[in-house]
Amino acid sequence: MEILIATHNEHKKEEIQQILPDYKITSLRDYQLFDEIVEDGDSFEVNAKIKAEYCFQKTGKASLGDDSGLVVPALDGRPGIYSARYAGDHDFKANIQKVLQEMEGVEEREAYFITVLCLIDEGKEEYFEGRVYGTLKREPSGNQGFGYDPIFIPKGEELTFADMSTEEKNKISHRANALKKFLAYLKK
Hints:
Elements: E1 2-5, H1 10-19, E2 24-27, H2 44-59, E3 63-71, H3 92-102, E4 110-121, E5 124-136, E6 152-154, H4 166-172, H5 174-186
Parallel strand pairs: 1-2, 1-3
Antiparallel strand pairs: 3-4, 4-5, 5-6
């Protein structure tokens, strides 16, 4: 079965392919769709649906929209739905620096990553959510992964996501948790 992931991000496509090895994972690039999908929703759910609807309308393929982000309670939930463009559009280093600056002097460093997936296929619309809780480091560490991985240490771990191998991260990540629910749905 083919699943079209509503992303131009090849890291995200590869991560999902590793978690769902029995499925053919395609992305917008595979269909030569380079439009920027405007994520103007007010929640992860709405943004995931916007992406999935776009892909399904363009291709007619089962489409999975994914909206993910870092939520920091000490920052009133920021960066949240603005995670990818918090300090600059997909400028992950700038985004990390902005979060670290805002967290200077803050002792409460709890945070969580969230992924919401929306599947749209032939009139069906399903949602799957995954979270992973942890804490924020005071400076980046590691060079695996992407996004805020260099400053996020999952609960019960000593390494940041960026210090872990892809396989280690994919066992416990927010996206893996959401995809496990998605996979259970597909196997019904």
